[in-house]
């Protein structure tokens, strides 16, 4: 029997998704204050708008007892025309978080596999993400490769 099951969702799990996203940022940034009221309100509003509009889909992984063990989201973003793709939208995997007690048990893998399957079923030819150090090995194992993106903080 499978240890986890997958559920696709919209805004009915907004508070869980918000909590997971805030805790994800806390783990990535460590000592930076993430849980301030302004950032929390802004993040809640952003998530709700994207989920309600339909440009974001949440993927929840549940235990067989019904507890949410983790989540991730697919944000369908506008992209630019490229010579190697006819797509002008692309799925972006974000907000990956697994509760500590369920880590290294396949929950994150199941979320990523489900996201990839969803993207293929919807006709997309690529998926992008930004990997934390903690997630990099999983994404590489699933076929994601480093690109040459650069960033300038203004």
Summarize the structure.
The protein is α+β, with helices and mostly antiparallel strands. It is built from 4 helices and 5 strands, in the order βααβββαβα. It has a single domain (4-141), classed as 3-Layer(aba) Sandwich (Aminopeptidase), CATH 3.40.630.30.
Explain the overall architecture:
The longest helix has 17 residues, at 37-53. The chain has helices spanning 14-29, 37-53, 107-121, 133-141, and strands at residues 4-9, 56-63, 68-78, 89-98, 128-129. It has a single domain (4-141), classed as 3-Layer(aba) Sandwich (Aminopeptidase), CATH 3.40.630. The model has no long low-confidence stretch (mean pLDDT 92). The radius of gyration is 16 Å and the shape is globular. It has four helices and five strands; from the N terminus they run E-H-H-E-E-E-H-E-H. With 154 residues, the chain is an alpha+beta fold. Strands 1-2-3-4-5 form a five-stranded mixed sheet, with helices on both faces. Helix 1 (14-29) crosses helix 2.
Number of domains: 1
Q: What sort of overall outline do the alpha carbons produce when their principal axes are compared?
A: globular
Low-confidence stretches: none
What is the top-level CATH class? Alpha Beta
Secondary-structure element string: EHHEEEHEH
Could you estimate the helical fraction of the residues in percent? 25-40%
DSSP summary: helix tally: 4
> How much beta, percentage-wise?
15-25%
Q: Give me the secondary-structure category.
A: alpha+beta
